[in-house]
Design a protein that fits this description.
Elements: H1 14-27, E1 43-54, E2 57-68, E3 74-84, H2 91-110, E4 140-145, H3 164-176, H4 187-194
Parallel strand pairs: 3-4
Antiparallel strand pairs: 1-2, 2-3
Length: about 200
């Protein structure tokens, strides 16, 4: 991977460094300036990295996205996740859990929003509370599992959900130069942020 030591200067824990490097290596990360200045037209692409800990589990992930600047629509094309939850008991179950978290987290990041009026919740069906459509799921989700048999398992149900929105937001910044800090990144909200 092309993640140099200066990129990791604030990360001290060896497990944290290992999970970040594993995600970068699997994704083929190459250091370059961000945001990208080499794109013109409505269709742009970017990549973003994010990292989180939860109850001892470490997760680093890279999102690769395409964005239509005219419509505001984001497509998450690829997600690369490195996951360290200590000892791995069931690698197949763990990989599927991480993949499920990625799909659910993308849905929450791009679409899901509970809306209210003065009296009630107005998000009452799939039209008023949209979720990720099967055609919008990533083409590729790569999961790198880091096993530490000497460390008690620290859980895998939710840690990979944590950094999803941050990775997508960083990819949007890489593609457009615009920081979006509030979900959902729905087309209307993205279009508004880009204008």
């Amino acid at each position: 991977s092309d993640v140099c030591s200066s990129d990791l200067r604030y990360v001290k824990d060896l497990r944290d460094i290992a999970v970040i490097k594993a995600a970068a290596e699997k994704a083929g990360w190459q250091t370059r300036p961000s945001p990208r200045k080499d794109q013109t037209g409505d269709k742009v692409s970017g990549r973003g990295i994010a990292y989180a800990q939860r109850n001892g589990t470490r997760v680093a992930m890279i999102a690769e996205v395409d964005i239509d600047r005219h419509s505001g629509k984001i497509w998450v094309r690829r997600f690369t996740v490195a996951h360290d939850c200590g000892q791995i008991i069931n690698p197949d179950g763990l990989r599927l859990t991480v993949e499920g978290n990625i799909v659910q987290g993308i849905s929450r990041t791009l679409w899901e929003e509970v809306k209210f009026d003065n009296k009630n919740v107005t998000s009452v069906d799939w039209l008023t509370y949209p979720i990720l459509d099967i055609t919008e799921t990533p083409d590729q989700i790569d999961v790198v599992l880091i096993d530490h048999p000497e460390i008690a398992p620290s859980g895998a149900g939710e840690p990979s959900s944590r950094p999803i929105a941050a990775a997508i937001a960083n990819a949007v910044f890489d593609a457009t130069g615009v920081r979006i800090r509030r979900v959902p990144f729905s087309p209307d909200n993205v279009k508004s942020a880009l204008s």
